[in-house]
Specification:
It is built from 11 helices and 10 strands. It has 305 residues and is of the alpha/beta class. The chain has a single domain, classed as P-loop containing nucleotide triphosphate hydrolases (Rossmann fold, 3-Layer(aba) Sandwich). Strands 6-7-8-3-9-10 form a 6-stranded mixed beta sheet, with helices on both faces. It has a 4-stranded antiparallel beta sheet with strand order 2-1-4-5, covered by helices on one side. The radius of gyration is 19 Å and the shape is globular.
Length: 305
C-alpha cells in the first residue's frame, strides 16, 4: 500500500498530527467552496449525490478462517441500510470490506466485488485512496484528534487525503451543519475537541468524514457508547444526511434499526466456526413485521441472539 493510502487509512486510528500542519490555500474548484476529489469522478460526492453501493458474492477471511461467505447486498442511493445480527456474524467485517479497510488487518483477505455506481472499488479503475474517500467511515467510539481544535478536526481528513480547500471556513461550517453540530460549536471552533461531550465528539467525527464529500458513509455502531439523548441526536442526523449521502449502519439496537433504516439486512451464522451470511434483506418494515425466514422473526423479536 502506498504511503498516501496508509496515511489516510490511519486517520481514524492515529492522533500524531501537529496542529500547525493543517493548511488549506488552493482556491476551490467548485461553487460550493469544497475541493474536487482526485481520481475518477464516480462517487466523488461533489454535488452531494448519494451513490448506490452493491456487494456481489463477497467473502472475507482472517488468515484461513472464513468469516463471510459469498454475501451480496444492494445498498440503495439516498437510503439508510441497517446491518443487524448477533455478535460474531461478520457485520463489521462486511462493513470494513466495503471501503477496503478490511485489507489493513494483517492476514485479512477478501473476494468478490464492491460496486460504487457500477465501478468496482477493488478494480483497476479506482485507487484505494479514492475508495476510502468516496466511502467514508465512522467508528463505534468517538475518536477525534484531542490535541486539535474543533475546526482543525473537521479539516484533518482533507489534509491527510492530500486535498486542499480555498474557503476552509465554509468547509468547516458546512460539514458541522450537515453533522448537526454547528449551532453548538460555532462560537468555539478554536476550542479543543476534548472539550466536547461524547455525543458531540461522535458528530465531530461525522463532520470530519463529511468534509471530504463521500458518496457513502459507513457507521459501525455509532451510538453504542453514547447515552440515549446523544443517540437520539445522532439518529436525527442520520435521517437528515441520507438525502445526500447513502448510509450503511451496523447496529445491535432493533428499535434503532426500525427508527433510522429504510432497508435492513440480517446476518447469521449456521453454527460455531461457520462464516456469516445474509439470510434476509429488504425494506425495514417487511423484515421486522413480515419476514420471510422464521429465523428473522425469532431474532428481531429477541428469541435468540
Amino acid at each position: 500500500m502506498s504511503d498516501a493510502a496508509l496515511g489516510f487509512s490511519r486517520l481514524m486510528t492515529s492522533a500524531t498530527m501537529a496542529p500547525e500542519t493543517v493548511s488549506f490555500e488552493v482556491p476551490p474548484s467548485t461553487s460550493t467552496g469544497l475541493p474536487a476529489m482526485p481520481g475518477p469522478a464516480v462517487g466523488d460526492g461533489g454535488d452531494f449525490e448519494p451513490a448506490t453501493l452493491i456487494a456481489l458474492d463477497l467473502s472475507c477471511w482472517f488468515g484461513t478462517h472464513k468469516v463471510i461467505d459469498r454475501t451480496s447486498l444492494e445498498m440503495k442511493g439516498g437510503r439508510v441500510t441497517a446491518l443487524i445480527g448477533p455478535s460474531g456474524c461478520g457485520k463489521s467485517t462486511f462493513l470494513r470490506t466495503l471501503n477496503r479497510m478490511h485489507e489493513l488487518i494483517l492476514g485479512a483477505s477478501s473476494s468478490g466485488q464492491v460496486l460504487l455506481n457500477g465501478v468496482d472499488v477493488y478494480g483497476p479503475k479506482m485507487r484505494v485512496t479514492q475508495a476510502r474517500l468516496s466511502i467514508g467511515m465512522v467508528f463505534q467510539r468517538p475518536n477525534p484528534f484531542m490535541h486539535l481544535t474543533i475546526a482543525q478536526n473537521v479539516l484533518s481528513g482533507l489534509r491527510l487525503a492530500g486535498l486542499k480547500a480555498g474557503n476552509k471556513d465554509q468547509v468547516v461550517q458546512e460539514s458541522l451543519e450537515r453533522a448537526g453540530l454547528w449551532r453548538e460549536t460555532r462560537n468555539r471552533l478554536n476550542a479543543p475537541a476534548g472539550s466536547l461531550s461524547g455525543g458531540q465528539q461522535q458528530r465531530l467525527c461525522i463532520a470530519r468524514a463529511l468534509a471530504v464529500r463521500p458518496a457513502v458513509l459507513l457507521m459501525d455502531e455509532p451510538c453504542s457508547a453514547l447515552d440515549p439523548t446523544s443517540s437520539h441526536v445522532i439518529e436525527e442526523t442520520i435521517r437528515e444526511l441520507c438525502t445526500s449521502v447513502t448510509i450503511v449502519i451496523v447496529t445491535h439496537n432493533m428499535q434503532q434499526a426500525q427508527r433510522v433504516a429504510d432497508d435492513t439486512a440480517l446476518f447469521l451464522i449456521d453454527g460455531e466456526g461457520q462464516p456469516g451470511r445474509i439470510i434476509e434483506a429488504g425494506p425495514t418494515d417487511d423484515v421486522f413485521t413480515r419476514p420471510k425466514d422464521p429465523r428473522t422473526s425469532d431474532y428481531v423479536h429477541g428469541r435468540f441472539g
